[in-house]
Amino acid sequence: MITGEETDPLPPLEWLRVFEAAGRHQNFTAAANELGLTQAAVSQRMKNLEAHLDTHLFLRLARGVELTADGEAYLPHVKSSFDAMRRGTSDLFASPRTKITIAAPASIAALWIAPRLKKLKTAYPSLQVSLSSVHRPTDFDAVKADLEVRFESERGQKNNAVQLFIETLVPACSPDLLATTLKSNWQQLPFIAVSGPRDGWHEWSVANGHAPVAQPSFRFDSIIAAQEAALCGAGVFLASLPLARDAINSGALVRLSEQPLVMNAGYWLTWPGLKLLQSVEDAVVSTLTS
């Protein structure tokens, strides 16, 4: 019997499981057959449940049982709870799931991988992806990811690698900043530089026969931070054309020169350890290289 002092009126799960089957079949014998119990065991569990709830759930008839008003009111709650547990169990554990970790520079994670995750999920619904940002080459050793995106030359690559893109840099800025001067005078605007392995303004000027640009007003350690500053109107930066393509196409950034700087290095998707399952590998590679 439930008293006012009890804090948890929930009966044992086994009793509720038997009640759900017995109430659904309206028959103790049928419930016993479904659950692998004896008819006597079903009957005893229902007596225990009724005593616990201090109410009658079934009317015992000569040819079976019927739910009482309390039993009819209680059965939908019990049934929906078991249905919810079945769905949750199926969603989480019924189908095998493949988990992979991708280590990549923050700019690649945000501007290249993130826009492709929806397509990757569609191609491989059971795939679970964890992204870890790396800031220097030594970070790859700490992460120990299944897949890595590295900035390297083709000569430095070994097996188990596919190129995402060759780095191509173009001057770009926000339309609001460009509105403060003539487009032909864009080199009079503030400059933004990016530290790291990429070529920079000096290399762009030499490659395209321009005089050296002014000393940069701002310097960032990642291209995603530099791009965000450019979007906010802070200055002109050398945009990675593959990473900034959407911003340029939408007009959020204005390309200032048709003369690009094409580097002899780019980003490579690699799997340094054992190869993934072929279907997973194909889905990831085809999605991230498109």
How many strand units? 11
What portion of the residues fall into strands of 2 or more residues?
15-25%
Radius of gyration: 32 Å
**Secondary-structure element order, N to C:** HHHEEHEHHEHEEHEHEHEHEEH
CATH architecture of the largest domain: 3-Layer(aba) Sandwich
Mean pLDDT: 86
User: How many structurally independent domains?
Assistant: 3
Oligomer: single chain
**CATH homology group of the largest domain:** Periplasmic binding protein-like II
The CATH topology label of the largest domain is D-Maltodextrin-Binding Protein, domain 2
Q: What's the end-to-end separation, in Å?
A: 65 Å
Detail the poorly predicted runs. Answer: 1-5
Q: Indicate the percent of residues in helices.
A: 40-55%
Q: Could you characterize what this model shows?
A:
The chain is of the alpha/beta class. The chain has three domains: 13-94, Winged helix-like DNA-binding domain superfamily/Winged helix DNA-binding domain (Arc Repressor Mutant, subunit A, Orthogonal Bundle); 98-164 and 266-288, 3-Layer(aba) Sandwich (D-Maltodextrin-Binding Protein, domain 2), CATH 3.40.190; 166-265, D-Maltodextrin-Binding Protein, domain 2 (3-Layer(aba) Sandwich). It is built from twelve helices and eleven strands. The chain has helices at 13-25, 28-35, 39-53, 69-94, 106-113, 117-123, 139-143, 175-178, 201-207, 223-231, 241-250, 278-288, and strands at residues 58-61, 64-67, 98-105, 127-134, 147-153, 161-173, 192-194, 218-220, 237-240, 254-255, 261-270. The strands form three sheets. Strands 3, 4, 5, 6, 9, 10 and 11 form a seven-stranded mixed beta sheet that branches. It has a two-stranded antiparallel ribbon with strand order 1-2. A two-stranded parallel ribbon has the order 7-8. The chain is elongated. The termini are far apart. Mean pLDDT is 86; it is low at 1-5.
